[in-house]
Structure formats: C-alpha cells, structure tokens
From TrEMBL:
Name of protein: Phytoene/squalene synthase family protein
PANTHER family: BIFUNCTIONAL LYCOPENE CYCLASE/PHYTOENE SYNTHASE
One annotated GO biological process: carotenoid biosynthetic process
Pfam families: SQS_PSY
GO MF term list: geranylgeranyl diphosphate synthase activity; squalene synthase [NAD(P)H] activity
Amino acid sequence: MNLFDETCFECSKVITKKYSTSFSTGIRAFNKRFRYPVYAIYGFVRYADEIVDTFYGHNQRELIDDFQAETFKAIDRGISTNPVLQAFQQVVNQYGIEKDLIEAFLLSMRMDLDKTAYNDDGYKTYIYGSAEVVGLMCLRIFCENDSALYDRLVPSARSLGSAFQKINFLRDIKSDYEDRGRTYFPEVDFSNFTEEDKKLIEKDIKQDFDDALVGIKQLPAGSRLGVYVAYIYYLQLFKKISATSANTIIEKRIRVSDTQKIGLYCKALLHRKLNFI
C-alpha cells in the first residue's frame, strides 16, 4: 500500500476511534486484513451522518448532494483527493460493494432532512438504508467474494444492523425527539411513551438479535470475533435499556461504561476459546 492510500485509511481509522469506542474496539478483534476496509466503511457513513445531524446553519441538502456526487465520482474514477472517499472507493471497488447499497444509505440520510415521523413503510425503509446496508457492505468484505456465503448470511446481517439501529433509537430518544424533532418508531407518541410501547419495541429487537446470532456463528473466522464483540456490546446496552423505565428512557441516555466494555471484550474472547461462537 502506498503512502497516500495508507494515510487515507488512517484518516478513517481516526474518525472511527473519535466517534465510537465500541466499534473501534470491535474492529481491533478482526483479522488485520479486515480492519482498514471496515474503518473505511465507518468513516464514510459517519461523514454522511454528520452532514444531516450537525451541519446546521448550512445548506445540508446541497452538502449531501455534493457528497453523493463526489462519492460516485470517486468510485467510477478509482481515486479521490478526499481521504475518506479515497479509502471508501477502494473498498467498494475491491470487494464489489453494490452501488444500490450506497444509494439506499444516502436516501436514508436525506430522509433525516425531511421526516419528523414515520409510518411502518418509512420506518422499514429508513432502517434498511441507515443500518442494514452498512452491515451488508461489511459482509461483502468478510465474505471476500464468496457469493454463496454472502447470500446465505444476508438475512442475519440485516437483522444485526436493524437491532443496532433500533437500540440507537431507544437510547437517543431524548436528543432525537427534543433536539431534532424526530420520532422513528411508527405510531408511538413520545409525549406519552408507555411501558407497553417500550415492551413492543423490545420484543422486535430481541427477535433481531436472535436472528443475527445465527449468522454471526457462520462468519469466517477472521471476522467472527469482531462482529460478536459489537453484538455483545449492543446486547448489554439492550439489557440495560430493558431494565430501565419508559419515563427514564425519555429523560436519560443509557450507556455501557468503558469498564463494562472491557469485561464484555474478555467475555467474547472466552466464548471464542470455548467455541460458543
């Protein structure tokens, strides 16, 4: 790898570490050949998310349009002077990541510029584009051009992305609802969020987790532990949210402490040694 390319991947690595300790720790559990490609995916999606979530006072729609145009230009040319897009286009071209996955992701980002509430169809479309396709991009990397394995694991990868996103929605209710005016869950009134509402959402997430674990156990050895680390981090977050009242969820962001994360990482290593995964 030449110096320019290495620097671009390192930029995505820095972005990942700055924005997510959970994912950056999970990535360290991957075989080394998978780490830069996954950093590149995360750097790309994080930049797009920042445009729609924090670039207030600027023309966000124009910025996301420009970002999309530059993304596909980089993919088609096979090069970009933007370090995040340079790393991303290399991964897209090397692993054959489909453009429709990228388009679905960017569509969901645009939905955040317009939507404040979702019906069932809009909710499913948003989750597919914002989370499930990110899992599918990573799955392309992990399967290393084994199309049969990829096709078999697609449902589980989508379920894992779906679980992560729904937990993020529950964790971030306060900021999404109060600061951004967004309500992702269909037919849920967050001015009167009830225990029944919360339990129905949790039942859906539990099914996603169960479906995801089936696929995690079938991942190639070089990626299995890293995905499992992210899985158990989010599973612990889910358990904490489940044990917290609906009223508290509305007022407080639930998190897993750094100390707990270290313990969970050790637990994942033990599970691997015991062949649980």
